[in-house]
Amino acid sequence: MNEFFRRACLVATLIFVGTVTSWAEDGKVSRDGFDLYYKTEGTGTPVVFLSGGPGFDVDYMKEVGAFLPADYQKIYLEQRGTGRSIPKVLSPETVNVKLWVEDLEALRVALKQEKLFIVAHSGGGLYAQSYAAAHPDRVGRMILLGPGGPTLEFAQWFGDNLAARQRPEDVRLIAYWDDAEKHGVDHEKASNERVRAAIPSYFFSRAKGLARAAAMPEGSFHAHTNELLFGDLAKGYDARPGLRKLTCPVLIIFGHQDPVGDLTAMEIHNTIPGSQLVFLSQCGHYPWAEQPEGVRKAITEFLK
Fold first, then answer.
1. Contact between residue 80 and residue 26 where contact means Cβ atoms under 8 Å apart
2. pLDDT digits (tens, 9 = 90+) for 29-82
3. Can you list the alpha helix ranges (DSSP code H) found in 13-122?
4. Which of 71, 53, 40, 48 shows the shortest CA–CA distance to 10?
């Protein structure tokens, strides 16, 4: 695994969460040769939730959905290459940023929404910013939690920030799964376990990080999808020109101890006119898990 994709795999851990139960309804949008699925919960104004990685299943975002009032309909998108939304062949031609953006636009049309209200976490923030940059007039509101940046500059220090937090037992376990494929372990299995081993270093609280790692569902991270999307993003991802055209309300919630780095949050905030930036202390990459009251307050005030 080359250094860029090793770091991309780390960025991939930009998310997941525990077991989720009982969805109200399933929906799908027909795409080229496969269906793009989503899960819904409740009724009211639609809000689309984007999970991170890229490449994580969306189920953990139900935890984030609980922070929105009951009069919003939560729509959890199973992104291309995750969940049930799997093209017949995963390749640069079937999984890339252009199609990523087109998928979200197709969902907007299917939902009959003039503009989307988007809530995104981590690598899902790359997705949200890519869409907003391409269609600044089709975003009505956006909340970004621990997002990746408007460029990939954050990848330069992200891996180092994680490594600085890792204990010897973390380092040994990560190294074990780095080498596992040489001993016949499936690529997806090894990648999932490597992500699990790195999760505690995303948290301010070691105990909460270990609990999150233990609860990570088997197979919830799709490594090939992650590699394809980061490979495409690396060709020149820069959402800043389009983001400067945004006129909708945007809220950025960021932990001071997030390994993505405060500079990333500041760059998004300085790029999007009128955006709001809320920093939370003693908080890593999962703000709602470590500082739930701070997240609740920020979202409540934003929605007013």
1. no
2. 999 999 999 999 999 999 999 999 999 999 999 999 999 999 999 999 999 999
3. 62-65, 97-111
4. 53
**Contact (CB, 8 A) for 149 and 130:** no
Residue range 228-233: mean pLDDT, rounded: 98
Residue 255's H or E segment, with its range, is strand 250-255
Comparing 182 with 2, which gets the higher pLDDT?
Answer: 182
Handedness of CA 17, 19, 20, 26 (dihedral sign): positive
Confirm if 104 and 77 have CB atoms less than 8 A apart. yes
Query: For strand 139-145 and strand 116-121, is the pairing parallel, antiparallel, or unpaired?
Result: parallel
Element (H, E) at 27: strand 25-30
Read off the pLDDT band of 24 (50, 70, 90): low
235/268 Cα distance (integer angstroms)? 20
Q: Which residue has the tokens 């949050």?
A: 265
CB under 8 Å to 178, separation ≥6 — which residues?
1, 6, 190, 194
243 contacts: CB under 8 Å, gap ≥ 6 = 129, 132, 133, 136, 150, 268, 271, 272
pTM for this prediction: 0.92
Q: Where are the beta strands (DSSP E) in 31-154?
A: 35-41, 45-50, 72-77, 116-121, 139-145
What digits encode the pLDDT tens for the residues 260-285?
999 999 999 999 999 999 999 999 99
SS3 call for 73: strand
* CA dist 33 → 30, 141, 228 (Å): 8, 31, 18
Rg (CA), the chain: 18
- Give the 3-state secondary structure of residue 95: coil
